């Protein structure tokens, strides 16, 4: 990795970023604001574009790009839950966190490049990484859609049978899953990443 980025520079960049961009996940914005206020954790934050083989990563997208809103990866486990990321960061404040932010024209953004510790590698390596990431997002969206259909059918069956308990369980699972079409819409690429 290159030179060490000062905590004050990371904080200033995050504040600039949060003022300039609306995030696809408002909870992710709260997480970034939390990091700004925790200098001991901010020391362990690294901005990177190549997140492969890193133990703890956050991917956060602005509304101006068509990528997944939020992903937290730790030791190969991936989740879309900002709450899980919050818990982990609070529980393990001494672990390094690698963050990749997705927003329009980020590769040409001087503010982002100034704090970037793992710069964009060759376009071939970067393309392979983003293809792998896209594949994961697509599989995740398909899985969510299958679960959504399953619970919709369970809700229909419960209504036909008058089974209130099954209906409430199906309704809760549907609320938890959210709109699968939104998950599918969040899968995409952004030309100017």
Concise description?
By secondary structure, this protein is α/β, with parallel strands linked by helices. It is 54% helix and 14% strand.
Detail the poorly predicted runs. Answer: 182-193
Q: Compute the number of strand runs.
A: 6
Instruction: Quickly give the structural class.
Output: alpha/beta
Spatial strand sequence of the major β-sheet: 4-3-2-5-1-6
Strand content: 5-15%
Instruction: Sum up the overall morphology in one term.
Output: elongated
The CATH architecture of the largest domain: 3-Layer(aba) Sandwich
Distance between the termini: 21 Å
Radius of gyration: 19 Å
* CATH homologous superfamily annotation of the largest domain: Uncharacterised family UPF0302, N-terminal domain
The tally of helices reads 8
Average pLDDT confidence is 85
- Series of H and E elements: HHHEEEEHEHEHHH
Largest sheet: 6 strands, mixed
Count of discrete structural domains: 2
Helix content: 40-55%
Look at the structure and give the CATH class of the largest domain: Alpha Beta
Write down the CATH topology of the largest domain.
Answer: hypothetical protein tt1805
How do the strands and helices of this protein lay out in sequence?
Layout: H1 7-20, H2 26-36, H3 39-42, E1 45-48, E2 56-61, E3 70-74, E4 77-79, H4 82-91, E5 97-102, H5 110-115, E6 116-118, H6 123-161, H7 164-177, H8 180-185
Parallel strand pairs: 1-5, 1-6, 2-5
Antiparallel strand pairs: 2-3, 3-4
């Amino acid at each position: 990795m290159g030179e060490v980025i000062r905590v004050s520079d990371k904080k200033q960049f995050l504040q600039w970023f949060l003022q300039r961009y609306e995030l696809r996940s408002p909870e992710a914005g709260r997480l970034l604001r939390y990091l700004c206020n925790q200098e001991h954790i901010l020391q362990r934050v690294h901005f990177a574009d190549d997140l492969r083989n890193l133990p703890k990563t956050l991917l956060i997208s602005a509304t101006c790009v068509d990528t997944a809103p939020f992903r937290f990866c730790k030791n190969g486990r991936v989740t879309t839950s900002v709450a899980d990321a919050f818990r982990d960061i609070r529980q393990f404040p001494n672990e390094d966190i690698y963050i990749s932010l997705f927003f329009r024209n980020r590769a040409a953004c001087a503010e982002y490049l100034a704090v970037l510790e793992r710069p964009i590698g060759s376009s071939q390596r970067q393309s392979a990484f983003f293809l792998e990431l896209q594949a994961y997002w697509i599989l995740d969206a398909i899985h969510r859609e299958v679960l959504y259909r399953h619970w919709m059918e369970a809700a229909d069956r419960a209504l036909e049978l008058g089974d209130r308990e099954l209906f409430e369980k199906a309704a809760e699972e549907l609320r938890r899953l959210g709109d699968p079409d939104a998950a599918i819409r969040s899968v995409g690429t952004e030309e100017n990443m």
